[in-house]
Write a structure and sequence with these properties.
The complex is a heterotrimer of chains A (253), B (235) and C (292).
Chain A: H1 4-7, E1 21-30, E2 33-43, E3 48-52, H2 59-67, E4 74-79, E5 82-83, H3 86-90, E6 92-95, H4 106-113, H5 121-134, H6 150-162, E7 168-172, H7 180-195, E8 199-204, H8 207-213, E9 216-221, E10 224-230, H9 231-236, H10 241-247
Parallel strand pairs in A: 3-8, 3-9, 6-7, 7-8
Antiparallel strand pairs in A: 1-2, 1-4, 4-5, 9-10
Chain B: H1 7-16, H2 20-53, H3 59-69, H4 74-85, H5 100-137, H6 141-151, H7 153-169, H8 172-178, H9 188-197, H10 201-231
Helix pairs in contact in B: 1-10, 2-5, 2-7, 3-5, 4-5, 4-8, 5-6, 5-7, 5-8, 7-10, 9-10
Chain C: H1 2-15, H2 19-42, E1 44-50, H3 51-55, H4 58-70, E2 73-79, H5 81-89, E3 95-98, H6 101-109, E4 113-129, H7 142-152, E5 156-158, H8 164-175, E6 188-190, H9 195-205, E7 208-212, H10 213-218, E8 225-229, E9 236-244, H11 254-265, H12 267-274, E10 277-278, E11 281-282, E12 285-286
Parallel strand pairs in C: 1-2, 1-3, 5-6, 5-7
Antiparallel strand pairs in C: 3-9, 4-7, 4-8, 4-9, 4-12, 10-11
The chains are: A alpha/beta (253), B mainly alpha (235), C alpha/beta (292).
Chain lengths: 253, 235, 292
């Protein structure tokens, strides 16, 4: 389903230029409450990092701070040691929990983000079609994006993000409202993206999904990083009480 | 015309007999109003979109001002444009007074705030949905406005329609700056006013019916397009 | 058919589907700006005139004659005499044709007009409801009739718009003792509108009104209004014509404006005015001084 040749950038790809991503003592305070509290993290290139935790732990907020959509109250986010600049900005992309699709055809949703690349109209459309193929949506190219099913919409959102040729892709609970079959298709697509060399940072509260996808896990609890470890270590021997309780299926708040 | 002939049949007879004058008047009404709406959209939609997207001090005041300009009295606008375009006014050298161009200018002034205010609302709603995506894509202002206007185009047609309704039914401004000159600047509304002042009430109402029918035809077509867009999930 | 074609172009434009066509349309709407300006200067003149001459149909009768004879197109803006004088003073017109002799003479003395000519006349009449509450029907003394209306507190609809008719009415009230101004808002109602609108109001509420005979005869919503007082020589209504002073406003189309005035004053023009009839009745009586 993937044809990486078709999608490879015509110019040499300076992958690894903006990673690792470092969060340094990030605090996000709203109405006198620390929604994120002094978070220190180093997120390395390549791997699939899963941000796991119960609802209200601050997972989505952390993702938005890392992606630069929200400014932290204090602390800083560093890209390969430097603050966010236009290069780092252009080399990352995000997929939202509820896909934000333009009121256009599936194809036009992708060509829209390809406008930044200096391509001829034909090249742009050819590339967009290749991304649709990757999401197994080539037959829906002319369908208005908002008439696609939930799973199709999220797949389109993912390949649209991928069309930006990001070094790192943030995904915020991309399967939260999807049935198992659609979830599986999304997870396969994420695998494909990862195999293409893109760093994945995915937020989920679904333990099964974390087990299926994770290379490393950041467990977030009440706005703090409870632990950050390799997936096998995390699932075998969680060190924090909150993570142990969460993995045991208890209600953690 | 006899008193017992119904107004409706009079209206139909006027249309059917193909009176050249009537068609010229209808044509000018449409031309002036559509040009005013077109210009009003060119000015008003970007203005409304910018107000919806930009955050700057005094934004609320500007929005309130714009909303209140939706109710600008046509006579006042007509008078202002008259003073501007009069031979004794600052723009008198253009020789535009009592021409269709003067009427278009006056109506553009009436239509633009309506289009801008309604566009602002439409675009603001759409922007609420798109804002995070646009920030994630790191789009510049022009690209953001462009995408919002393009994707909001079917909803924006409602704004244009409201502007058209204002323009086609307006009499005060076009009377003053157009002069209701037969064969030159007479439009449906000023013709109706003239017939009323001559006591030709049945004729005036018949013309009014034709005007309403025109406005309805335009509305139906735009609403039809909107329905189509809704079915296609573009609106 | 034309209408259909136009509607199609509207649909196209409004949808944005034919955005390019719409832009072209807008451009054409804008590019006709200089065109129409040139037209105004070229072979047409603009006449500032009164509603009575337009509403009665006089212009529709005489202008085609003039236009075929000279090839000059005459555009008429019909407003109240006061407004017409103001517009002409601003230079928004080439020729002024109104009916308020004193104001016209002042206009010329101020240098706004070149020379005023008597053109034609008719008369004013006092109209009122058929039941005539003030009992003025048949009176030959207009100020006395107004005084009776005032005494009866019968409703009187005044133009109140500084028009020629309004000025004539105010003169008559002065002769009648000036009771009207004090009664403003009670039985004396100022409509602030044109003659036709004022007659519509008078017909609607059964009020008395002063009107020029031309507007009255061609007015088609009389209901039970009747002519009650006529024939007083103080009801005389003189129309005058003059060229807007090209020395004051250099864009004035003096040559063709003069041609129009000369034609109106000529035998041909005067008999064209005399030949205009509504329901068999002559509405305007030419009285240009011979050789003027």
């Amino acid at each position: 389903m993937l044809n990486p040749q078709k999608l490879s950038d015509p110019e040499p790809d300076p992958r690894g230029a903006i990673l690792p991503l470092t969060a340094h003592e990030i605090t996000l305070r709203l109405a006198n409450e620390d929604l994120l509290h002094e978070i220190d993290l180093v997120i390395e290139a390549r791997s699939r990092t899963i941000i796991l935790g119960p609802n209200g732990a601050g997972k989505s907020l952390l993702l938005r701070v890392l992606h630069g959509l929200k400014a932290p109250t204090s602390g800083e986010v560093l890209w390969a040691g430097a603050p966010l600049d236009s290069v780092a900005r252009a080399r990352q992309a995000m997929v939202f929990q509820r896909p934000v699709l333009l009121r256009r055809s599936a194809l036009a949703n992708i060509t829209f983000v390809l406008h930044r690349a200096k391509l001829s109209r034909q090249d742009r459309e050819a590339r967009a079609r290749a991304y649709l193929e990757m999401a197994e949506l080539e037959h829906r190219a002319q369908t208005p994006a908002r008439l696609l099913s939930g799973g199709e919409q999220q797949r389109l959102a993912i390949v649209r993000a991928l069309a930006l040729n990001p070094e790192i892709l943030f995904l915020d609970e991309p399967t939260a409202s999807l049935d198992p079959a659609a979830t599986l298709a999304i997870e396969q697509l994420i695998d494909t993206v990862h195999n293409g060399g893109t760093k994945i940072v995915l937020v989920t509260h679904d333990i099964g999904q974390a087990r299926r996808l994770a290379d490393d896990v950041i467990f977030l609890h009440r706005g703090r990083v409870a632990e950050h470890s390799q997936a096998d270590v995390f699932f075998a021997q969680p060190t924090s009480a909150a993570a142990r309780a969460f993995l045991a299926g208890q209600i953690v708040t | 015309m006899s008193d017992d002939s119904s107004v409706l049949s009079l209206a139909l007879r006027l249309l059917a007999t193909g009176d050249d004058n009537l068609y010229a008047i209808i044509g000018l009404s449409m031309r002036v109003s559509l040009a005013a709406v077109g210009l009003g959209c060119l000015l008003g939609i970007p203005l409304g979109a910018a107000l919806a997207v930009l955050r700057f001090p005094g934004r609320t005041v500007v929005t309130a001002l714009l909303n209140s300009f939706m109710g600008l009295p046509p006579v006042v606008v007509g008078l202002l444009i008259y003073l501007l375009l009069s031979r004794s006014g600052p723009l008198g050298f253009l020789g535009l007074l009592y021409t269709p161009s003067a009427m278009i200018i006056a109506q553009t002034l009436l239509v633009t705030p309506i289009v801008a205010a309604l566009s602002r609302q439409t675009i603001a709603d759409l922007n609420d949905e798109y804002a995070e995506l646009f920030r994630s894509l790191d789009l510049g202002l022009a690209a953001r406005l462009g995408a919002l206007i393009r994707d909001g185009r079917y909803s924006l047609m409602t704004a244009a329609l409201a502007g058209f309704g204002r323009a086609i039914a307006e009499v005060g401004a076009v009377m003053i700056v157009g002069g209701n000159i037969a064969g030159a600047t007479r439009v449906m509304t000023t013709a109706i006013a003239l017939e009323t002042s001559k006591g030709e009430l049945a004729l005036a109402i018949a013309l009014g019916l034709i005007l309403i029918a025109l406005a309805m035809a335009v509305n139906l077509m735009v609403l039809g397009l909107n329905n189509f867009a809704q079915r296609r999930a573009y609106a | 058919m034309i209408c259909l074609v136009r509607l199609k172009s509207i649909v196209g434009s409004a949808t944005g589907v034919a955005g390019a066509a719409f832009l072209a349309f807008l451009l054409s709407a804008l590019t006709q700006l200089p065109g129409s300006a040139a037209l105004a200067a070229d072979n047409s003149i603009l006449v500032q005139s009164t509603t009575s001459t337009q509403n009665s149909g006089l212009f529709a009768h005489i202008l085609p004659l003039f236009e075929t004879q000279t090839g000059i197109k005459v555009k008429v803006v019909a407003v109240g005499t006061g407004q017409a004088l103001k517009n002409a003073r601003n230079g928004d017109g080439d020729v002024l044709l109104v009916h308020a002799k004193a104001a016209e003479q002042k206009f010329v003395r101020g240098g706004w007009g070149v020379k005023r000519f008597d053109l034609m006349y008719n008369d004013f009449v006092i109209v009122g409801p058929a039941n005539d509450p003030a009992k003025i029907a048949g009176m030959k003394d207009a100020p006395a009739a107004l005084a009776k209306i005032a005494n009866a507190h019968a409703i009187f609809a005044s133009r109140g718009d500084n028009s020629g008719t309004h000025k004539a009415e105010l003169r008559l009230w002065k002769l009648a003792g000036g009771a009207a101004a004090a009664a403003r808002g009670s039985w004396y109602r100022e409509t602030g509108s044109g003659m036709g609108a004022t007659l519509n109001i008078a017909a609607g509420i059964g009020a008395y009104a002063l009107t020029d005979r031309a507007t009255w005869l061609s007015f088609n919503n009389k209901r039970d209004l009747r002519v009650l007082v006529e024939g007083d020589k103080r009801l005389f209504n003189q129309y005058g014509v003059m060229l807007v002073n090209p020395a004051r406003h250099k864009h004035v189309n003096a040559k063709q404006g003069r041609a129009f005035i000369n034609w109106l004053l000529s035998d041909v023009g005067q008999s064209a005015i005399a030949g205009f009839k509504v329901k068999g009745r002559q509405l305007f009586f030419p009285n240009a001084a011979p050789g003027s």
